[in-house]
């Protein structure tokens, strides 16, 4: 029994060690990956439920690891936040997305009014230099601020409520669009939501998934849409996968949709082919 106990201990320690080593390797790999251009952005179209036109894209981070292949953000964003690498990564995303949208506007007439959304993580949002960073990138590239939208999760905004108002209003008054992301997963109420300068509210995928399951779920989404509209915000539904969901959302007055029903995230080459074509899906 003693032997078995010791073996169990060994296995346990070994596993913990493996986990720690794996985490350390992932972090140093990401550090190298940023320098070696292993990161890139895919772009998922955001679609007007009324006009059926694409009104913008959300930039989604991808990492092509030399040994592991494609690594999704769910596997490294948290680590980047914890290690502080998110600052470098986040700044890279800002300049890469702005550079790309600027290129599309220059090349394609139908791209003039597109807004590219970028995701800003909680830790990134705690850095007050973020605002100057975004604004100076726009200036450097001579990119109109209306072509950029930032998505910040409900939780990230509420956790930093004090500085959020000031940061967001600086961005908004410069003309950058501001969206609250993953709405419904946090704890905001109508009264604290109205304090924040916002343009758009994105309903979390979990609510969209449940929408066809019961009438109560429809009522919840309806309440969120009404809340947003009462605050003067546009609404985007994320993770729209079926025509049934699309119809329900359109009937409730939801302006925009994003999801596999319309398109999966596209590569830059696919976006360019799309813009070169007729700008409809
Ligand atoms: P998110 O901001 O909620 O982004 C939407 C996620 O849903 C994306 O996953 C997208 O590919 C996926 N998606 C889109 N349509 C559908 C659909 O119809 N069905 C389903 N099941 N999923 C759909 P992805 O690309 O894996 O990104 C995951 C998360 O990683 C994002 O969630 C965001 O929180 C984070 N992320 C991505 N790019 C960045 C970035 O540049 N910076 C930061 N800080 N976070 C990022
Ligand atoms: Ca997002
Ligand atoms: Ca989400
Ligand atoms: Ca999110």
Relevant terms:
single chain, 281 residues, eight-stranded mixed β-barrel, 20% strand, binds ligand C2E, binds calcium ion, PAS domain S-box-containing protein/diguanylate cyclase (GGDEF) domain-containing protein
**Quaternary structure classification:** single chain
So what's the overall shape? globular
The value of Rg in angstroms is 21 Å
Order of secondary-structure elements: HEEEHHEHHEHHEHEHHEHEH
Please report which band the strand proportion falls in: under 5%, 5-15%, 15-25%, 25-35%, 35-45% or over 45%. 15-25%
Bound molecules: ligand C2E, calcium ion
Query: What is the tally of helical segments?
Result: 12
Distance N to C terminus: 66 Å
Provide the structure class. alpha/beta
* Largest β sheet strand count, sense and barrel closure: 8 strands, mixed, barrel
Protein name: PAS domain S-box-containing protein/diguanylate cyclase (GGDEF) domain-containing protein
Domain EAL: 23-279
Question: What do these coordinates show?
Answer:
By secondary structure, this protein is of the alpha/beta class. The chain has helices at residues 2-35, 77-83, 85-107, 122-125, 129-141, 154-159, 161-174, 190-193, 205-210, 215-230, 243-251, 268-276, and strands at 39-48, 54-65, 69-71, 115-120, 148-153, 177-183, 200-203, 234-238, 256-258. Strands 1-2-4-5-6-7-8-9 form an eight-stranded mixed barrel, surrounded by five helices. It starts with a helix and ends in a 5-residue tail after the last helix. The structure holds ligand C2E and calcium ion (3 copies). Residues 44, 60-61, 72-74, 77, 93, 119, 121, 181-182, 238-239, 241, 258-260, 265 line the site of ligand C2E. One calcium ion is lined by residues 119, 153, 181-182. Keywords: Membrane, Transmembrane, Transmembrane helix. Residues 23-279 form the EAL domain.
């Amino acid at each position: 029994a003693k032997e078995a106990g010791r073996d169990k201990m060994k296995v346990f320690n070994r596993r913990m060690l493996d986990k720690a080593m794996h985490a350390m390797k992932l972090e140093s790999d990401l550090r190298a990956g940023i320098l070696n251009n292993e990161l890139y952005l895919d772009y998922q179209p955001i679609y007007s439920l009324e006009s059926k036109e694409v009104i913008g894209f959300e930039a989604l981070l991808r990492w092509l690891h030399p040994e592991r292949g494609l690594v999704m953000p769910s596997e490294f964003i948290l680590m980047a936040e914890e290690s502080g690498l998110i600052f470098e990564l986040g700044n890279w995303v800002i300049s890469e997305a702005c550079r790309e949208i600027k290129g599309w506007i220059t090349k394609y007439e139908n791209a003039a009014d597109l807004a590219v959304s970028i995701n800003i993580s909680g830790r990134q949002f705690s850095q007050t230099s973020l605002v100057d960073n975004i604004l100076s990138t726009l200036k450097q590239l001579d990119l109109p601020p209306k072509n950029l939208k930032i998505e910040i999760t409900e939780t990230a905004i509420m956790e930093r409520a004090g500085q959020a108002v000031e940061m967001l209003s600086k961005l908004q008054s410069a003309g950058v669009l501001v969206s609250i992301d993953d709405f419904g997963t946090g704890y905001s109420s109508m009264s604290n939501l109205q304090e924040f300068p916002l343009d758009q509210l994105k309903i979390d995928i979990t609510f969209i998934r449940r929408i066809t399951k019961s009438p109560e779920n429809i009522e919840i989404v309806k309440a969120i849409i009404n809340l947003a509209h009462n605050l003067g915000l546009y609404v985007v539904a994320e993770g729209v996968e079926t025509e049934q969901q699309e119809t329900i959302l359109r009937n409730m007055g939801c302006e925009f949709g994003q999801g596999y029903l319309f398109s999966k995230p596209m590569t830059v080459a696919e976006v360019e082919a799309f813009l070169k074509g007729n700008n409809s899906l």
